[in-house]
Design a protein that fits this description.
Elements (H helix, E strand, L loop, with lengths): L4 E2 L2 E2 L7 E5 L11 E2 L2 H9 L5 E3 L7 E3 L4 E16 L21 E18 L4 H9 L5 H9 L9 H7 L4 H11 L3 E3 L2 E3 L3 H18 L6 E2 H10 L4 H11 E3 L5 E4 L1 H15 L6 E2 H14 L16 E4 L8 E4 L9 H11 L3 E2 H8 L9 H8 E4 L5 E4 L1
Parallel strand pairs: 3-8, 4-8
Antiparallel strand pairs: 1-2, 5-6, 6-7, 7-8, 9-10, 11-13, 12-13, 14-16, 15-16, 17-19, 18-19
Length: 392
Amino acid sequence: RRDAVANGAFVAEDGEEFDLVCGADYASERVELLEVDEEILSEILSNDGVIAFKGEPDDVAVVCTRSKTYQVTRVESSNQCLIVGPALGGEEDETEAMEEEEDGPRRATVRAQTSSHLDLTEIAPRLDRLREMMASVAYAGTAEAMDADEGEGEGVGFGFDELNARVQASELEILKCLQEEIVAIEIDGKWRGVDAEYRLHALAMMTASAFGNGWSTSALPTDAVVDAMASDGFAPEMARNTLHAFATKHDVDDTWALDEEAVCRALAQRVLRDGAGLKAWRLVEMMDQWREKLSEFNLGHVEAKEEYLSGLALIDRPERAAEAFVRTLIASDLPREPGDRFAALWAVKPRWTLSELDPYLKGQARPGQNIEAQLLKYCRVTQGNPPTYSKR
């Protein structure tokens, strides 16, 4: 008989009747249907049809394309869905042995059956495991790396394929986190985080080299910086990593401009962590320590601006007090899930202005839940000048 399906599509005409024929293994064949919209389909097809289900045994699985991450939800149906088409996975098609006839109804072979399908909803990438993996193998210098190599290979990092397999995020989301947030280092094909103190040590050596060689901090030459830091015992990869972390590359030549805000924030964070827990830390005292730290790094000419403390500290200005006080509160230390983030903020103080909240909500928007939606969900607004936000 003639088949009613060709190249994945019905060829029977409208109104034409055809026979359903059950394949030999249709009752035991397992097929999952995945419902996707045009955007997801286009991305899948542009990536040679590749998508990945990701998750370790205790994880709730996600689906990742090359650039996005999706939550997977099973949608049950009261109707039985029959999968009709060509033979699956090498199954011998017994129906093909049927003699073809020009007359008589066409046939359609049932290959499998299902009563549910999988639905996808875009979500924020789950990157906490990546952060933990990078912190577990934080790089702290060439001597440390040699010690690890001479041991049992522990702490030498993770290849990207392993990261891509274990982290519940797309390939591009993982790379963005490695390069922009963590500013991880790649040595011999292995990715690692960088120890915070060692990163500052590398910054100190880079600025000392610039000062000693008379290089302008707005035009740091790549090769010269790498060579100078290598002579001080730094791996070339660490020298380049330091440039990426604290400078911006010029488009016209192979030089870098020191990112004063990035440097100031890194040194402010170091000062603030030393003062964490102080209840009445005068802002002027903190600013003085910050300027001293900049001078230690040969950066006395760089201005320590109060605005650079955004997301690193809370500045309290009591109405009847003559001076301001500072409290250490570093955004990257807070939980990343919106509900947990707000709970942590309410624990610090019960009422916030929007300008105070804003630095701690930066980067918290996620698919289907922008910052405005989060404020509506987790906050109660009390009108005033300015309005204040408290726990809902």
